[in-house]
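Sequence in, structure out. Go.
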Amino acid sequence: MTTQKTQEGWSDRPLSIEKFSADLPQRHLFDRLFQIALWAAILTALAVLLALLIDVAIDGLPRLDWQFLTSFPSRRAARAGILSALAGSLWILVLVATIAFPLGIGAGIYLEEFAKTHWLTRLIEININNLAGVPSIIYGLLGLQVFVRWMQPITGGRSILSGGLTISLLVLPIIIVATREALRAVPGSIRQAGFALGATHWQVVRAQVLPAALPGILTGTILVLSRAIGETAPLIMIGALAFIAFLPDSLQSPFTVLPIQIFNWTSRPQEAFHANAAAGIIVLLTVLISMNTVSILLRNKLQRDRMQ
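Output:
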C-alpha cells in the first residue's frame, strides 16, 4: 500500500496518480508527419533553387566567353564585360581577409581564453552578439561617415580601401562569435593537460587549443566570405560606382563589384543586358564556389593532420 503525508501525519490512502497513456501509434504518426513536412520543405527549397540555376544557365552560358571576362563595361551589351567588377570583388575579398580575420580571431581568443568575467566583458559580449544581427545598410551609413568623409585623406574617399574597411566591420562580429564557439568546443582536458606539463596560458592556447579549434574557425570564415562577396547595400552607400572602365591600381582607386554590376545590367530594359547579368551571376557563383572549395579542403586537411 502506498502512503502519503497529510497535515495529521502519514496515511495509508493510495496516492492519486494520473494514468499515463503512451499512445505510441499516435506519437509515431506525429513523428512521421513531421518528417514528411521537413522533407517537403527541403525539396521545395531545392526545387526553387534548381529552377533559378537552370534559368540563369540558359540565359548566361551562351554569353559567357573570354571576351566577356576580359572586357570592361560598355553601353553596348555585345561589348560589355565584367573585368573591372571581378577585379573589384577580388580586391574587397583580399582586404576583408587581411583586416577582419586577424582582428576577429584575435578578439575571439582574448574574450574566450584570457578576459576576466566582469561587467565590461559582459557588455562587450552583448554588443558583439547584437552587432552580428544589424542590417548591412547600417554599416554602409557608418562607413560613409567614418571612412569616406572623416578618413578621406587616408582612404581616398569612395575607394577600395573604404569598401574593404566597411565590409570588414560588417563581418567582424560574425568572425568573433564563430571563433568563440569553436574555442568552446575544445575539451577542457586539453587545457588541463597543458597546464599540468608546466606550459603557460598562452602556450596552451597557441599550441593546443587554437589548432584544435581552427577547423571550426575556418567553417565560420567560409560563411563570412560568402556573405562578403555578395554584399551590395553597404558598398552602394559608400559610393561604389556601377560603371568603371579601368582596373584599380591602388587602394584609393574607385571601384565596382560583381553584385553592383549585375544589378546595373538587370535594371536595364534590353534583353541583351539581362543575358550579361545572367553571365555575371554565373561568374559570381563560380568565384564563390571556388573560394569555398579551397576553404573546405584546407579545413579537412587540418582536421586530418590534427587526428594524426
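Check: The chain has a mean pLDDT of 85. The two ends are 61 Å apart (CA to CA).
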